[in-house]
Design a protein that fits this description.
about 240 residues; 4-stranded antiparallel beta sheet; 3 domains; about 15% strand
């Protein structure tokens, strides 16, 4: 009776027994056995399987050597990301010192000198009327250093003339005179045609010195911010 596992020629119906050489090659291809020294790679197998990377592999694999840098266009290493973040923080600090801090210091200086009302005041050209409270120290400011404030006159609600004066310590402010309204009401300011003036709160001359320091600090902050911002911008562009 013929065997169900053999064909008419006596060969296996469902497979073929591998020779010892073929079995060894299969085991090497599957990584079960290490290839013999100097043995050529098995057909279809990766030429780099089962061996340490050689000198030529370093060109294809940027991470084959310790400390190798990634190719251009790849992700930055953690150190590069940290340096870029530091550059951005430096740029932000520079912008704050250049813009925000000077604005705050200048606004504070004006508020200190003008009794906390740097925006209070009425602008007039030539002549006009302004409402003032009795006893509140007021001043007449000129928008031009050579404006003839000495030729300006102020008349009260009842038609009486109001005396103006240049307070002590205002010698360097020729475009500024102060006065005190004797009564509450509308005051008429008359100046030569075309003279632009502002009627507002009087300056506190005793606060000019600290206000001057604040202005100098604003100037120094702007210069420092310009330098720090430039350094931060260079770092961001270099790391980018």
């Amino acid at each position: 009776m013929p065997s169900p596992y053999l064909d008419d020629d006596g060969e296996p119906r469902y497979g073929r027994r591998a020779s010892p050489e073929e079995l060894a090659a299969i085991r090497r291809e599957q990584g079960i056995d290490a290839p013999a020294a100097g043995a050529p790679p098995v057909g279809g197998a990766d030429s780099g399987a089962g061996r340490a990377p050689g000198p030529g592999d370093a060109e294809d694999n940027p991470y084959a050597r310790r400390g190798a840098r990634p190719r251009p266009g790849g992700a930055l290493p953690p150190g590069g990301l940290r340096r870029r973040r530091r550059g951005r923080r430096t740029l932000v600090v520079g912008l704050i010192l250049l813009i925000v801090v000077p604005l705050v210091l200048l606004g504070g200086a004006m508020a200190l000198v003008l009794e906390g009302s740097p925006s209070a005041g009425t602008a007039l050209t030539g002549s006009g009327e302004v409402y003032l409270d009795a006893g509140v120290a007021s001043a007449l400011y000129s928008l031009s250093a050579d404006a003839p404030l000495s030729e300006c006159s102020i008349t009260g609600p009842t038609g009486q003339a109001v005396t103006t004066e240049q307070p002590a310590g205002a010698g360097d402010l020729p475009s500024y005179v102060s006065f005190t309204p004797p009564a509450t009401g509308r005051y008429t300011v008359s100046c030569p045609t075309g003279t632009a003036v502002v009627v507002g709160p009087a300056m506190r001359m005793d606060r000019l010195l600290p206000a001057s320091f604040m202005i100098l600090a604003a100037l120094g902050s702007g210069i420092a911010g310009l330098v720090v911002g430039a350094v931060g911008l260079v770092r961001v562009l270099r790391r980018g």
